[in-house]
Description:
Number of strands: 0
Distance between the termini: 66 Å
Number of helices: 11
Order of helices and strands: HHHHHHHHHHH
Radius of gyration: 24 Å
Shape: globular
Low-confidence stretches: none
Oligomer: single chain
Number of domains: 2
Amino acid sequence: MDKKSDSKKAKKGSIVKWLFIVPISTAIVILGYESLTQHYYPAYSILSALHRSGLLISFPALHRPSRGIWLPLGWLGGAMMCSLMLYSLRKRVHHLNRLGSLRIWLLVHIFLGLMGPTLIVFHTTFKLNGIVATSFWAMITTMCFGILGRYIYVQIPRSINGTELKSGDIDSMVEGLDKDLGEMLPDAKLSGMLEKIIAPGAGATDLNPLKALFFYIRNDFGNMYRIFELKSKLKSQYNLPGSARREIISVFKKKASLVRKRSFLKTSQKLLNYWHVIHIPLALLMFFIMFLHIAAYFIFRPTV
């Protein structure tokens, strides 16, 4: 097991997580406050404060999709949604390989797929009727399905550069983690407890793809409780310092994840293929309805 490579991957994962959380959370908080104040207390809105300073006078503090800041918010969110298609282009056009790794493109694709709908939700000012409602729910369905796709995607073991790992590679990594755990565990009895969490369960590998997906989710929640139990035992019965407990739990989580991914490798690949079959038409339907909504805006847009 290459600990340096593993540490680098974990560090990158942590940075990416915060690059997702911070801007999306900030957008939700600021736009949520602005939406609430413009609707109920316009004088306390951020836009009203900017007006008093002589800024953004051309944007009235009106809580309507076609007025104020909410209209450009819709354009920006729509542009982000359209930009998602660049990932599909990058995957299929080999000449674009020089423009960065596919893994980075996927991360940008996921970020835009979360931020775009967030902006569009606030653009609607929660007034949903007619084609707007159809467009909105098509977008929400596509976004939720995209999140599900990401969950399925991470069930397939990959290297640091995003390429799929073979069964032999996974076995080598598991052996390395076993060696690390053997050196760190204070008592051999703990190995039995670890195996209960790692084992996928009798007959689990024979499940069809849909049942396997529900197994993944149930197994994840079950393991969260078992890991909490393991943490408590390491602290109360073995009196290990926090750093040692965290290291054992970290190595164990990696092993549990790899063993499950190895057991369900073919099933996860099938699931991802089925997901693509549904996700692509769903996304195309979403864009079709979105463009209808844009066309309707230009035809029936208010003149005042």
